[in-house]
Amino acid sequence: MPRISLKNATVDFPVYDASARSLKKAVFRSVVGANIAQRADGHVVIRGLDNVNLEIAHGERLGLIGPNGAGKTTLLRVLSGIYVPSRGEAIIDGKCVSLINISLGIDPEATGRENIRLRGVIMGMSAREIAARAEHIAEFTGLGEFLDMPLRTYSTGMQLRLAFAVSTEIHPEILIMDEWLATGDAEFQHKANERLRAVVDASSILVLASHSPELIQENCSRVIWLEKGQIRMDGPPADVLHAYQNQ
Known about the structure:
- There is one protein chain.
- This protein is an alpha/beta fold.
- It has helices spanning 22-32, 72-79, 112-122, 127-141, 156-167, 186-202, 213-219, 237-245; strands spanning 3-15, 36-38, 44-56, 61-65, 87-93, 96-98, 174-178, 205-209, 222-227, 230-235.
- Helix content is 36%, strand content 27%.
- A six-stranded mixed beta sheet has the order 6-7-8-4-9-10, with helices on both faces. The protein has a four-stranded antiparallel beta sheet with strand order 2-3-1-5.
């Protein structure tokens, strides 16, 4: 069964020449709530995650809430395998797809069809899988003849439609999301929402970070409140959201 396990996971981002930036550090801490620490070797670090222990089992829909700088994106990237903890460990069992950056790997000089293949490779699809799904992806984009033109000729909305179509073609066991994706015009958004809902429903584990209480309440069975890289509260959505909104 797919599962995720973090044990004493800490993620540090070194700050070089920190001694000359004491004022900047103080302002940064007060504005974004960052957790700034000093390691045993004297180096100053921004602590994205601080000794986090977390177990996520098959069937769970986990929501992440917290202020800017709380560590939500860092945690999502650890769960996606993008970041490796500086200390502790992260165990991810299961096929994982991250929708944090759906435009990763997109080449503006390549055509839409070429970018379908490029993005597919980034997502771990084999050449055979890409070939089998390419036409289905192309049809979903609704971009027609534009697929044979360089991506740099596309509008921002068209680029997002292409990236979304490729990124949601795979139904993973573990799905990592930073907010709910909404792309394109009203007609495409309706089609995209239906497709994204199908991907979410088919996943064994969902981890969704959002600033929207309604989105968290609708999609999650458990919520974690992060603050300064630590878990402040973990429990049912109604309880955690109420505590967070009334702090």
